[in-house]
Amino acid sequence: MCHCRGFSARGYPSPPSTLLLCLAVLTLFVSVSPVIGWRPWPHNKINGSDLLFGPSEKFEGSSEFVHLRYHMGPVLTANITVHTIWYGNWNKSQKKIIREFINSISAVNSKRPSVAGWWRTVQLYTDQTGANISRTVRLGEEKNDRFYSHGKSLTRLSIQSVIKSAVTAKTKPLPINPKSGLYLLLTSDDVLVQDFCGQVCGFHYFTFPSIVGYTLPYAWVGNSAKLCPGVCAYPFAVPEYIPGLKPLKSPNGDVGVDGMVSVIGHEIAELATNPLVNAWYAGQDPTAPVEIADLCEGIYGTGGGGSYTGQLLDDRGGATYNMNGIRRKFLVQWVWNHLVNYCRGPNALD
């Protein structure tokens, strides 16, 4: 028997839900189909020669086919706090890369093009009162789960159980913040997750009160270094089935984590604009929403589209990036600007 306690748009308890509603929401979550932008997914049977020699004309999305709309749900207008769960085996250097990326979202003195400049496109989105998404994104509390409390193979529902363990822990539990908190579950390179590598590199949703006790926006992102770097760490790794395609050098010397950074950016941008899956998205089906980062998957610079990342930057050591953080460089995909109906990023050349 399923018993749910729902939350209003502002995160406060609402009257008890019916069994029917609870089952409907559960079905929605389990059956949700990820939106797939361009990645070298194995099941797509990509023609390698098309990737290598196809046209690199300006792409960056098409206003003719995209109809991103606001569906009146809440967005994150209050200062955003990212609470991180490190699941599995993580070393200090890996954590530093991800922490600095998150801290760079609100940094004001980073060299251009900057991560903060990338976030300004996300800030353009508003709620029904006209309030913009918060400029401030900061690191919150962190929780280490180095002993794999729920095993090394996770389903979408067991991910919510990991979050429950983190917010209900007897020692140093993560704070409960339904209004402006985001919960970021990061799994190490030896953890299998449902649909990982075959369909998704990360996803976001919200926790069920019946499992966690609260409705909390969360995202999961996995380290693909050992499992599928050619898919989820692309373009810092390439799959063997695309002959002639060469990987780019990662800016922080960790292919798996540098690949994760872009996925983390993707999910945080979508959590801010569509935390309860009823705010900003394209398409008629909320079970498979096309969100602001889905529209720009694989686009990192001017001219990007298909397997072509767009025009990027190289540092003195030959590493490729498209934006600066506080002290590091990152390669992060662009997001959709609904005012101009185009994918945009801080390194755009026009």
TrEMBL record:
A single Gene Ontology CC term: apoplast
Signal peptide: 1-37
Source organism, top-level taxon: Eukaryota
Family: Belongs to the EXORDIUM family.
Official protein name in the record: Protein EXORDIUM-like
Keyword Repeat: no
Keywords, in A-Z order: Apoplast, Secreted, Signal
InterPro entries: EXORDIUM-like
Signal is among the record's keywords: yes
Predominant localisation class: secreted
Record organism: Quillaja saponaria (Soap bark tree)
Pfam families assigned to the protein according to its UniProt record, in alphabetical order: Phi_1 (PF04674)
Compartments where found: Secreted, Extracellular space, Apoplast
